[in-house]
Structure formats: C-alpha cells, structure tokens
Amino acid sequence: MTVKIKLASDEKEVMAPEPEGVKIQIVEKDRVEKNLKLRSALNGDLMILDHKDIDIVVQPNSNKIVTFAKEMMSDAVYGAESRLMEYLRRQGVIVYDSIKGGNVYGSLEGKIMDSESHDSIKVTLLKISEWMDSEQPYIAGTTAYDDMQDDALVDPDNEYSTEFDAERHSDTKGSMQQRDMFAPYLYGRYTY
C-alpha cells in the first residue's frame, strides 16, 4: 500500500487520505543505544568484559548477576564489585537483600527483580552500561597511573638515574677476592 503526500507552498494543510479499514497509529518509544563489550556463552549467559578489574555475567536463565575478578583478587576488585551491586540495588534492578558472595573466590552475585512491564534483562544491561560510563574516569585514572609507573621504571628521570662511569665500575668488587690462592667456600680447591 502506497500513501502519497503532496507538499504545498501555501499554508494549507494537506492530509493523506487513509485507506478504508486501516488505521495507522504511531507510537513513539524512547530508543536507547549503548555499547558494551558483550559476549554470549553457550548457555545464554551474557558476559560483559569492559571493566578493567572485573567481569560481569548476567544470567537470564536464573535471573542473576555475578561479578568475577579479572586477574587477581584485591581491594580494587572488591571495591568495583561492591560499587556495581550497590548501584544496581539503588536503581531498583536487583533485590535489596540478595547481594552475597558467590561460590567462586572473590565473586559477588545478586538476584535481578522480576518485572511485568519491562524486560528485566534489557533494563539490567542498560543500568550496567550507565554504571560503566560512570566508572570511566576511575579506569582512565588507574590506567594512566600504571603507565606512569612503567615509564618511571623503564625511562627514569635524571634525578633517579646515573650515567655509566667506567672508573666506578671495575672488575673486582667487594671485600672477598676471587683470585686468592684458596676460594673462601671451596674448601681447599685452588682458584686462579
């Protein structure tokens, strides 16, 4: 079915005629687009791998969110897990008293609330994406600090480094001479 609309240069309003028996109703919905580095597991779990310290797994089958340490467990990892769970609790995504330690060392989990009016998994992903946006300054700051530490070790400032001096670096060092008649720990064997 084709609807033709003509635009007029004068101020008269031109309406396209509606075909008989067909009513067109336009419903505008909010469209939200977010980007997450997301993978799907074989069982349908959604794994979000964007964060520097933690991995987030949304389990639609059991209506749970589980967070895992990315590398090793530390205060920074627990802090990120705790911030995520508290954010989701305050936003009304997870059940208030369901936040607990998981069966894997250093993991936290929470139960997603059921909803009749909204898709709870899509809302959960949206709220996780908003939390990830709020975490970007933290991630950028810690990454910059780590890079600064690496640069200080690889290419130190003049204050913390010295140039090579051949006079100060000789073959013999220390008080135990290796060219004595007897080596100190060889018990009677000659050294030359």
Topology, element by element:
Elements (H helix, E strand, L loop, with lengths): L37 E3 L5 E3 L5 E6 L4 E6 L5 H16 L9 E2 L6 E4 L8 H35 L38
Antiparallel strand pairs: 1-2, 2-3, 3-4, 4-6, 5-6
Descriptive account of the structure:
- The chain has 192 residues and is of the alpha+beta class.
- The chain is built from two helices and six strands, in the order E-E-E-E-H-E-E-H.
- A six-stranded antiparallel β-sheet has the order 1-2-3-4-6-5, covered by helices on one side.
- Strand 2 (46-48) and strand 3 form a beta hairpin.
- The protein is elongated and about 100 Å long.
Q: Name the overall outline.
A: elongated
Average pLDDT, all residues: 79
Give the SSE order as H and E letters.
EEEEHEEH
Distance between the termini: 103 Å
What CATH architecture label of the domain at 38-145 applies? Answer: 2-Layer Sandwich
